[in-house]
Design a protein that fits this description.
The protein is an alpha+beta fold. The protein folds into three domains: 3-161, Hotdog Thioesterase (Thiol Ester Dehydrase, Chain A), CATH 3.10.129.10; 200-246, no CATH class; 248-327, OB fold (Dihydrolipoamide Acetyltransferase, E2P) (Beta Barrel). It is 15% helix and 34% strand. It has helices at 3-11, 30-40, 75-86, 164-172, 204-211; strands spanning 17-23, 91-101, 111-120, 124-125, 129-142, 145-159, 216-220, 226-227, 242-246, 250-259, 271-278, 283-289, 301-308, 314-320.
């Protein structure tokens, strides 16, 4: 299928419904709000008590269909993804979301929502590979009143290491005695790079600290509440003023998962991703190294380390204390 022909076929899906007349499987409720706040470490008193409201960032939570999905799911979105799969754009990554809050949600509110395929981009070439950005917009309502909108964007792409163009370039630079390799088997020296972190005005200082091997935690200038990851304002008192403190580097594994699937260029599953509780009391998500993935345990002491992924990227990770880092 020619690229131009595919682009025309994809554009037909813009404006078509992905979910029509969706209904939240549960009303807004206090237990879910409590779970969310505990997981996020958010102690704002607005989310507790008889006059509690739900954290605005939970907007999408009340629309999730779980394993069984939604009966009102329209076929257009699945058709669009199948069309991209058939054209070779079989990998997918969520890139970003945007939310607009118009009304506070309170326990007992019954949620209704519609979702539409808002846009399909022209073909784009990224560091991950070549593909198409697909944006859906969900309008969340309580009765007839619009409570907020949630835009969600994914990239459906063909991985760069599997593209014919990448293989052609590799062959052009191959040594005379080097044997050609299939597009699915990149040369060891061509290991794909890890995705770059998104650096913006709200977190640039954090990444500047990482470059100097410092893990910086934001501290509210008004109420002294610590926060990590970085945010533009305090989630306890709302103040936009802040400074930073440097983490001492000690922590424990608060929780963890072992990633087995999906396989992704530049990553070698299985590997452990931990939610680390730092000595300062905030939590941070990163890899746990220095111990086999199946030996990671809740409560395990860890120590901050910095790992260079490539010539441009260095990341903070946590090494199990008393263990030798495996090569």
């Amino acid at each position: 299928m020619a690229v131009d022909d595919l682009s025309v076929r994809l554009k037909v899906y813009e404006g078509r419904a992905a979910v029509l007349g969706g209904r939240g499987k549960d009303p807004v409720n206090s237990p879910m709000i409590r779970h969310w706040c505990e997981a996020m470490g958010d102690t704002n008193p607005a989310y507790t008590g008889p006059d509690a409201v739900a954290p605005p960032t939970m907007l999408q939570v009340w629309t999730m269909g779980g394993l069984s999905g939604h009966e009102t799911r329209a076929p257009a979105y699945d058709e669009l993804l199948a069309l991209l799969d058939g054209a070779g754009y079989t990998s997918v990554v969520a890139t970003d979301c945007e939310q607009v809050y118009l009304r506070a949600l309170r326990p007992g509110d019954e949620i209704m929502f519609d979702s539409v395929i808002e846009s399909v981009s022209a073909r784009k070439t990224t560091k991950l590979g070549t593909g198409y950005f697909v944006t859906t917009r969900m309008d969340v309502r309580v009765g007839d009143e619009l409570a907020g909108t949630h835009r969600f964007r994914i990239l459906k792409y063909a991985p760069a290491h599997a593209s014919g163009e990448g293989e052609r370039r590799r062959r052009e630079h191959a040594q005379p005695d080097e044997q050609p390799r299939s597009p699915q088997q990149p040369h060891p020296r061509e290991r794909p790079r890890r995705p770059r972190p998104v650096v913006n005005r709200d977190n640039a200082g954090f990444w500047e600290g990482v470059a100097r091997h410092r893990l910086l935690i934001q501290r509210c200038a008004d109420c002294s509440t610590l926060r990590l990851p970085w945010l533009p304002g305090c989630n306890a008192c709302g103040s936009p003023e802040w400074d930073t403190v440097e983490a001492c580097g000690d922590g424990t594994v608060y929780s963890y998962v072992v990633m087995h699937h999906p396989p992704f260029p530049a990553f070698d599953p299985p590997y452990a991703v931990g939610l680390i509780e730092l000595a300062e009391g905030v939590r941070f998500v990163s890899n746990v190294i220095g111990v086999p993935y199946d030996k990671v345990r809740i409560g395990m002491p860890v120590r901050l380390a910095f790992v260079r992924c490539d010539e441009e990227s260095e990341l903070p990770v946590f090494r199990a204390e008393g263990e030798v880092v495996e090569a």
